[in-house]
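Shape is hard to put into words, and the shape of a protein is harder than most. The fold becomes a row of whole numbers, each drawn from a learned catalogue of backbone shapes. The outcome of that step, for a single protein, is printed below.
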Amino acid sequence: MLDTYQSERHPIAAGVLDWTRAQVALMRGDEQTGQLRAVMADQLLTVPGVMNRLVALTAGILQRYDVAEDADVPVGTIVGGLFDHGHDGGFVLVDRTAEGSLSTVKPRFVYAHEPRTGEPSILVRPDGVIIWAAISDDEDTRARLDRALARWAGSGADAERRTAVSFPA
């Protein structure tokens, strides 16, 4: 993960810096900035979509890391609630296939079978970033999962250190 640190994190850091500078600018004590704050409070922050977006920006949940070429969301986004499972440097594989067909993979990971029709199975790095996702469970899907594991887990991907967990329904 350190190999991709700069290419992934620097664009995010630049965005956070811009966001922080904008917030600091809104705290200036001059009259014009006060008028801008009043307009924002009256006209923008009362719109649910705008407020939701501002909260999401502030929380960092709109960030997307460039971790895979041509990957659709949710790849690159941060997933909450799985940090406890990956705290020891392991990866988390959430298998949402009906039969749990991805369970035959044996990398260093925590495995959870959580069948949900229409929702993708996901592979999550220890830092909570989704690095692979797929809805199907065909040979191509398993091959892409193997490539993601090889890229991110390296030679330790074949180690037999697997834990099964379950999520509440």
In short: The chain has four helices and five strands.
